[in-house]
Amino acid sequence: MTTGILTDRALGRATLARQHLLRRSDMDPRTMIEHLLGLQAQAPMPPYYALWTRLRGFRPESLSALLESRAVVRIVLMRGTVFAVSAADAHALRRWVQPLLDKDLDTNTLHRAGLHGVDRRALASVGRDLLSDTPRTQAELRPLLAEHFPDQDPAALAHGVRGLLPLVQVTPRGLWGRSGPPRLAPLDVWAGPPESDLPGPDRLILRYLAAFGPASVRDVQAWCGLTRLSEVVERLRPQLATFRDELGVELFDLPDAPRPASSTPAPVRILAPFDNALLSHADRRRFISDDDRRRTMTKNGMIAPLVLVGGRVAGIASLTTGSGSSVVEVTPWRSLTASNRSAIETEGMKLVKFAAPDADHYDVRFTADSA
Q1: Cα 123 from chain centroid?
Q2: Before 172, cis peptide (omega within 30)?
């Protein structure tokens, strides 16, 4: 039974509350990472900024320690992109989204021809053997795979191993202030075997709703990259509350999840690049207009840090550190009140000091929108 209509503003407040973007949380970093089902991590540093904007008093060394202890790993998961997740969630999520990665091997225009006719079981076995004792980059892996499959494209073979096996990017990749090339190792070798009771699709979708809901079936599919999830959601329907959005689309949610009043104040937040809060719904109008959504991707394919004002995306930010300075430049997409500019300056100053605590010079600048 549908219990009511949720406006875009109400949806935004609900998701911001669950993302801990209305009020910073006192959770420890690992608990927050598990609550969010991972942090998008194509580049090494975004997970640190994603936690900074959600956690009170977050110190980057705490995430580095989780990576070094192997409690958190960097691995290809939802939508075929890299996430920083707990090791336990890495096992569960990778098993669930593996069909997405299998499909990529069949459809990837760059590597499909190079994998034609390859025995994938043999490729996975050889790749696992080569990476179990010595973590390697894909470039290091290519000539070794070519020895076993001499008639195939080495780059395609390395891509195939990455898709067939759950591989983590080992440290120092992803460490604060250090990082390194993405050397790969099997998940179970690096972080240990999976638990005996891994969550299946039902539990994972319930967790998605806890962190991103309310959401439609299409939203769930946009988050994970999988399709045909209506059957799973229907199976969960007796446990869920249902609503409609402004367009009449059915939304599902946990009955007791927070759904603050649409009048709830939403503070200024500067999100991390690729922040998953803004990438995990098919319909993102709860945060951003369709026109502005097209402006979020930079010319080199990056999703820039987005600035939230009053719960809506109001522009982008660019952080630059080095040479003794730490500067954030904010490009608003609409006119800002004096109080909004002041709030952005305050949040921006917190960000530049977090990014480079020993810098000699800090600044928050506003630039004109060239779009």
Answers
A1: 29
A2: yes
* HEC readout, the chain: CEEEECCHHHHHHHHHHHCCCCCCECCCHHHHHHHCCCEECCCCCHHHHHHHCCECCCCHHHHHHHHHCCCEEEEECHHHCEEEEEHHHHHHHHHHHHHHHHHHHHHCCCCHHHHCCCCHHHHHHHHHHHHHCCCECHHHHHHHHHHHCCCCCHHHHHHHHHHHCCEEECCCCCCCCCCCCCCEEEHHHHHCCCCCCCCCHHHHHHHHHHHHCCECHHHHHHHHCCCCCHHHHHHHHHHCEEEECCCCCEEEECCCCCCCCCCCCCCCEECCCCCHHHCCCCCCCCCCCHHHHCCCECCCCCECCEEEECCEEEEEEEEEEECCEEEEEEEECCCCCHHHHHHHHHHHHHHHHHHCCCCCEEEEEECCCCC
Which residues fall within 8 angstroms of residue 149, CB to CB, at 6 or more apart?
118, 123, 126, 157
Question: 292-332: per-residue pLDDT in tens?
Answer: 887 776 655 567 899 999 999 999 999 999 889 999 999 99
Percentage of the chain beyond pLDDT 90 is 89
Are 352 and 363 within 8 A, CB to CB? yes
Task: Residue 199: count other Cβ atoms within 10 Å of its Cβ.
Answer: 18
| Two tokens, residue 306 | 């987005």
Show the 3-state SS of 202-226: HHHHHHHHHHHCCECHHHHHHHHCC
CA 26 from chain centre, in angstroms, equals 21
Residue with tokens 């929108």: 369
**Angle of the 138-148 helix axis to the 154-164 helix axis, nearest 10:** 110
Rg, Å, the chain Cα set = 21
Q: Tokens in use for 98?
A: 């593996």
The structure tokens 């960097």 sit at 74
Nearest Cα residue to 279 out of 211, 202, 344, 205: 211
pLDDT digit string, tens, across residues 133-174: 999 999 999 999 999 999 899 999 999 999 999 999 999 999
